[in-house]
Design goal:
Layout: E1 16-20, H1 25-36, E2 40-45, H2 48-61, E3 66-71, H3 77-86, E4 94-97, H4 115-136, E5 142-146, H5 169-193, E6 199-203, H6 212-219, H7 223-236, H8 240-252, E7 261-263, E8 272-273, H9 283-297
Parallel strand pairs: 1-2, 1-4, 2-3, 4-5, 5-6, 6-7
Antiparallel strand pairs: 7-8
Helix pairs in contact: 1-8, 3-4, 4-5, 4-9, 5-9, 6-7
Length: 306
């Protein structure tokens, strides 16, 4: 893969993009660069205050940026449905499933799902399914899902998707990131079977400086761990803009293959093909997780013949 940076992003005028979790970190950097290239960008965030503040900051950094805030709480399927129903565009060129939580203490979403699986996977699964009609009628549309190298920790456990028998915060996180890749794999397979040109691909930022690392320790009062995470972010992590490059590449570079997985290189910053665990390209696991996700969310995908 040749050297690539944000200057290589093509003109996106007339394109519509939705970026979840766009109020900070990688999501903010992703949305800002899409807007800088002319896209109309919807900042899909849980907090209205943080989302509108992010929009104001983005507009100041990118004069003329076409950005709007719309509330989306991935931990509440009613909010996901409301967001999808209220999107005021006939087309959708790009859906970036970026928002996520990491290594939180055990908790459940509004619908009773373990929160890492519920937010990182099920919320985005429902969102993409509800927005699929707009994606299908937009030539060259893409669905980019942000996973993590931590997916290599574990495959999903189809018999305990909500970690009801046993919960370990990092194991649950890794499984949710595997679910992201299995979703991408199965969506790609279903789109290809129907002759659709919508591209489903995945990316990961590597070790990037975001608030993901500190949220869990802060919630449980582990101040030393929070301090160590902040220190690690400061001295060892990639910046959020650097961490966003694989997502931006997958979202905008020509010739991105369906079911590809892009990450940072070992040296440098240009995005590169990322290694993935073999279980993330398992057709049977992809199908079974898909069927479970449709059952749990009530969102059934309809991919007609192109």
């Amino acid at each position: 893969m040749a050297a690539w940076n944000t200057e290589d992003i093509p003109d996106l005028s007339g394109r519509v993009a939705v970026v979840t979790g766009a109020n900070s970190g990688i999501g903010y950097a992703t949305a800002r660069e899409l807007a800088r290239r002319g896209a109309t960008v919807v900042l899909a965030c849980r907090s209205e205050r943080r989302g509108t503040e992010a929009g104001d900051r983005m507009a100041a950094e990118v004069p003329g940026a076409d950005v709007t805030f719309a509330r989306l709480d991935l931990a509440d399927l009613a909010s996901v449905r409301e967001f999808a129903a209220g999107l005021p565009y006939d087309r959708l060129d790009l859906l970036v499933n970026n928002a996520g939580v990491m290594a939180l203490p055990y908790g459940t979403t509004a619908d009773g799902f373990e929160q890492q699986f519920g937010i990182n996977h099920l919320g985005h699964f429902a969102l993409a399914g509800l927005l699929l009609p707009a994606l299908l009628r937009t030539p060259g549309a893409r669905v980019i899902t942000v996973s993590s190298w931590m997916h290599a920790v574990s495959n999903v456990d189809l018999t305990d998707l909500n970690s009801e028998r046993r919960y370990h915060r990092w194991l649950a996180y890794g499984r949710s990131k595997t679910a992201n890749l299995l979703f991408t794999h199965e969506l790609s397979r279903r789109l290809a079977a129907q002759g659709s040109d919508v591209v489903a691909a995945a990316a990961h930022p590597g070790y990037a400086d975001t608030n993901l690392q500190t949220a869990g320790p802060r919630m449980t009062g582990r101040r030393l761990t929070e301090t160590l995470m902040r220190t690690g972010n400061r001295f060892f992590a990639r910046s959020a803009p650097s961490g966003a490059l694989p997502t931006l590449y997958a979202a905008t570079a020509p010739g991105v293959r369906p079911d590809s997985f892009t990450g940072p290189p070992l040296v440098g910053v240009s995005p590169a093909p990322a290694r993935r665990a073999p279980w993330t390209v398992d057709d049977r696991m992809g199908r079974l997780l898909w069927e479970a996700s449709e059952r749990l969310t009530g969102v059934v995908y309809d991919v007609p013949k192109a």
